[in-house]
Amino acid sequence: MKNLKVMKTIALLILIVVSFSCKKDTTPDPTPNPQLETGTVTDFDGNTYQTVKIGNQWWMAENFKATKTSSGQNIQEVFVYNDTQSNATVYGQLYTWAAAVQATPTGWHLPTKEEWEAMINLLGGSGIAGGKMKETGTAHWNAPNTGASNSSGLSTVAGGFRGGDGVYYTMGEHGSYWGTANNTQDPYCVYLYNNAANVVTEVSPIDKTSGIAFAVRYIKNE
After folding, report:
1. Domain span at residue 163?
2. Neighbouring C-alpha atoms within 13 Å toward the C-beta of 157
3. Are the CB atoms for 199 and 133 separated by under 8 Å?
4. 31 located within any domain
5. C-beta separation of 169 from 160 below 8 A
6. Is the previous residue joined to 187 through a cis bond, with omega within 30 degrees of 0?
7. pLDDT value at position 34?
């Protein structure tokens, strides 16, 4: 009888351990790679951002959220998802391409097509780089957050986007980021997804005036 009680106790402990290990992961990994070189930068509004060095480039590792330029002017066409200000804390603001250009802080710039591609290639190519760019867990990405390792330290989040129709779309499923192409004359768009490890990119001149609004990560001037 005593042995039976011991066996039941052991079985219960095993069940608890297994149940705990199977719980949904809702916490992002705060240190995806302790070997990464990191820093900080502060915008005009006083927001401080983590930065990370990927290859020989310094990237912002958080979505930009300033509403004023480096000279203190209000930026037009800046939005927060669902017009709910608390969303800006993690997901940043959403900027039209013109606003993203205007918002550029001193000493930084919107990543060019070539700079995005250099980073993507460094991370193994477009088929897997998205996973290495995404924050882990399901706090800021919907499950399954396929392939997410955040080994780059870029810590992208699924902040969705604002359509040209003024409607907000796909928070938790989709992260969209601006860049520049054709000697900074046109928008370059970078897309990440919760159900894929790849990254999709396109040059999209139409989005210069479409009113669509994406998240922004700036890259430091060399």
Report:
1. 37-220
2. 24
3. yes
4. no
5. yes
6. no
7. 64
Query: According to the model, what pLDDT value does residue 32 have?
Result: 57
DSSP classification of residue 170: -
Per the domain annotation, does 135 fall within a domain?
A: yes
Residue 205 belongs to a domain:
yes
Specify the number of domains making up the chain. 1
Rg (CA), the chain: 20
DSSP state of 74: B
| pLDDT tens-digit series, residues 26-45 | 445 554 566 899 999 999 99
Mean pLDDT of 61-77: 96
List, for residues 120-140, the tens digit of each pLDDT value.
Answer: 999 999 999 999 999 999 999
* CA dist 104 → 25, 77, 107, 176, 217 (Å): 35, 14, 9, 17, 10
Query: Taking the CB of residue 175, how many other CB atoms lie within 10 A of it?
Result: 29
Average pLDDT over residues 8-24: 38
* pLDDT score for 4: 39
In a domain, 29, yes or no: no
Structure tokens at 174: 């989709």
pTM of the full predicted structure? 0.85
State how far the Cα of 113 lies from the Cα of 184, in Å rounded to an integer.
Answer: 9
E strands within the chain?
38-42, 48-54, 57-60, 78-79, 94-95, 108-109, 161-162, 168-169, 174-181, 186-193, 199-203, 219-220
Tokens representing 54 are 């990927």
